Amino acid sequence: MPDPKARLREQFHEVARFKYFSERTEDSYWQWVVRYLKFHRQGQRWVHPRELPAAAIAAFLSDLANGQGVAAATQAQALNALVFLYREVLQVHLREIGEFARVRRPARLPEVLTRAEVQRVLEAAAPEFQMPLRLLYGTGLRLMELLRLRIKDVDFERNQIVVRGGKGGKDRVTILPASLKVELAVQVERWRLEHARELAAGRGETSLPDGVARKYPAAAREWAWQYLFPAAGLTMYRGVRLRHHLHEDSLQRGMKAAVARAGIAKRATCHTLRHSFATHLLENGYDIRTLQDLLGHKNVTTTQIYTQVMQKPGLGVRSPLDG
Fold first, then answer.
1. Is residue 215 flagged as an active site residue?
2. Which of the following is catalytic: 29, 86, 227, 306?
3. Closest C-alpha to 205, from 191, 219, 221
4. CATH no. of 8-89
5. Are domains 8-89 and 115-308 of this chain identical in fold?
């Protein structure tokens, strides 16, 4: 139960952190709560969600579908956010939300690059983005999983990377590509020397998870807690100048520029490298369960989508155009 004397926003964030929500999920859910309350605002008066009828949720979701034309995944996220608000934060059991217009979810296959296309993109990437993009493809990590990697998460001896607090708050282990070990180790050593110089200059702090920051405040200066891909500059956070990880927008722009330079006419993003990793492993003969573990999928049916885009030589079907 959140603090009953706290404001709704404070209660919301308190419960979200107790449930180990990622920062992105917590922020996204709260934005949906704000939009929901704005939708039902009566003039200048804000109405507390406890005062709204159950049908208020259905009305809001229907407006998203009919009035705003959002995607199915967007509407589903809004519903999840409001269910969390009522059930977990306000402790209100939703009996019947009621019928609402649902956005149809068309079946979409993931965009996948061929092996040759991946190599062209990686070769066309700017030098500062070469390693993170190669590691994205070589490990199948999600973008933020990669950027939040810390020095302690890379095990060069065991050839593995530990993903802390991935999607759903779960930890998992994935592979460290052998072809990147030497180059990555050199980059890490270069960053270690730079970190030592920053410590000597009275800097060298990094951002930490809230729990770690409270319990081990000195960890912010420790080498093990530094990000594997640090930002180029320092950031002011809570009165302290510290070094955060490389910003996701920077890497996404780097990927977009590399795709353009490579002359590839596909809508390829950083996440496309994850899709390509999965598809190419299946084509190499690895089983679906192994792939599920590496990707961190909760359900194997999510992983099976890649069987529809993998190349299947010897399918036994010949086009009538070929005679």
1. no
2. 306
3. 221
4. 1.10.150.130
5. no
Give mean pLDDT, residues 89-107: 72
Q: Select which of 142, 148, 150, 243 is catalytic.
A: 142
Q: Which of 13, 120, 150, 297 is catalytic?
A: 297
Domain spans of the chain, in order of start = 8-89, 115-308
Does the annotation count 274 as an active-site position?
yes
Active site residue 195: no
pLDDT per residue over 203-262, tens digit each?
899 988 877 888 888 899 999 999 999 998 888 877 788 999 999 999 999 999 999 999
Confidence of residue 314 (pLDDT cuts 50, 70, 90): very low
Catalytic residue, from 167, 172, 203, 244: name it. Answer: 167
CATH T-level fold of 115-308? hpI Integrase; Chain A (1.10.443)
Active site residue 244: no
Tell me if residue 167 is catalytic. yes
Mind listing the pLDDT tens digit for each residue in 285-307?
888 888 889 988 888 888 888 88
142 classed as catalytic: yes
